[in-house]
């Protein structure tokens, strides 16, 4: 039986060709009978936070592509419940959302660095049973999320970092070429 819950990382199989999820790492934030929701952690979006929020014009915080669903929405993960109220606890001191007006104020006052918060355009979603089916088909490799993995790593290295941390056969996958025919 495959167990999935909020706080699980989904690491894409190296053979996954879907451009939305190739070499991606997704944090599952919600997993219910009706479906699942998470954010791609390691795909930078082409816009900065200041491009999206009028009150933060000029702020160069990176924004990530959270997934292909509702790409007109902005979400955030953080590990600062002491200054951002209302966040939903996910795991290991990681919180989803909270008081956005407070976030804007903290950024304007230079009291919230990029190492404490991540912003995502859109999200990744699965209908009832879809994620479990994908796990059964081995589309995803699962690993527990940690604050260090989400906030303490360069996004371009996250896929490799998680696989190497898992060790064994997974560590070997971290070095697998994107297209083995080019070797």
List the helices and strands and how they pair.
Blueprint: E1 8-12, E2 25-32, E3 35-40, E4 44-48, H1 49-52, E5 62-65, E6 69-78, E7 88-91, E8 94-96, H2 100-108, E9 117-127, H3 130-136, E10 140-144, H4 147-151, H5 158-166, H6 168-173
Parallel strand pairs: 5-9
Antiparallel strand pairs: 1-2, 1-10, 2-3, 3-9, 4-5, 6-8, 6-9, 7-8
Structure characterization notes:
With about 180 residues, this protein is an alpha+beta fold. It has a single domain, classed as VC0467-like, CATH 3.40.1740. It is built from 6 helices and 10 strands; from the N terminus they run E-E-E-E-H-E-E-E-E-H-E-H-E-H-H-H. It has helices spanning about 50, 100-110, 130-135, 145-150, 160-165, 170-175; strands spanning about 10, 25-30, 35-40, 45-50, 60-65, 70-80, 90, 95, 115-125, 140-145. Strands 1, 2, 3, 4, 5, 6, 7, 8, 9 and 10 form a 10-stranded mixed β-sheet that branches. Strand 2 (about 25-30) and strand 3 (about 35-40) form a beta hairpin. The chain is globular, with a radius of gyration of 17 Å.
